[in-house]
Amino acid sequence: MGAKPLTAEKSRNYSLGTVVRFSHFDATVDAYRINIRDRIVLSENLGAGATQANVRALLAPFHVGAARFFINGVDTRTTGVDLVMHYLLPTSVSGQFDFTLAANKNKTEVTRVPSIGLLAALNPAPPLFDRLNRLTLEEGTPDSKVVATLDWKLPVRSGSTGISLRATRYGEVTEPGLPVSATEDPTLRDLVLDPTWLIDLTLNAAFFHDKFAVAVGADNLFDQYPNRTPIARANPGGGTVNLDPTNAVAFSRYSPFGFNGRFLYARATYNW
What we know:
Structural class: mainly beta
Helix content: under 10%
Order of helices and strands: EEHEEHHEEEEEEEHEE
Mean pLDDT: 89
Shape: elongated
C-alpha cells in the first residue's frame, strides 16, 4: 500500500523564562513552543469504510479486507506557558505555612498530516490520519491545569503535626465521536468533559523525634467523576444522541483523573 520504513521523529523547542525571588517568595514563568516533525502514528483502518472499495481492491489479492500500519508524517505545534509561585511563611506560634501555585496553559495543533502517493492517487483518496486521531492529539488532553497546595507544619514535643491540602483543576477535554453516517454532523457525538476541581487532604503527625509517623488522607475528597457517556453515543447504532445524564453509561477513558472516585488511606512508618 506504499508504506515506507519509519524514520526518527524530529523536534525543535523554543523557550523563554524568568525567575523572581525576594524574601520568602519566588516565582518562575516559562513560555515555550515545541514543533515536532514526522511523528509516528498508526494509520486509519484502511479499507474498512463503506467508501473505500478501491482500497479493498488493492488488498483483495492478499485475501485481506482492511489494513493499518505505522507511518511518519504528522507535524504538530504545541505552545504554552508555565507559572510556578511559592511562598514560605514561618511563624513563631502557628508553625510554618508553605504555599505553592502551579499553572499551565497550552495548545496543540496538527499542522500537517501524512500522505502516500499510491493511496493519494485513488479516487476518493482514503484519509491516513482522520478527524478522530487529529482531535485526540489536539483536544484529547486538558488545555490547562492548575495545582494549588498548602502544607502546614507545627513542631510539637519530640515531633510535629501537619496538614497537606491540594486543589487541582483539570481543563476541558474532548473525546471525539464517530458519526453514524456521512451526512451526520461530525461533532454531534463528540463528548466534552467539563473542567473539574479535585481536592486532596492529608493529616499527618510525627513522634519520637520523627522516627515514627502516621498519616490519614483522602485523594479526590469530594468524590468527583468525569461526565458520563450517553448511551446512544456509546452505541452508535442507538440512533439519535441523548445527552440526558440519566440516560448514560460508563465514563470516558479520556478523563485526565480517571473514574475511580474517592480514595481513602492510612499510613504508618517507622525509621530506625
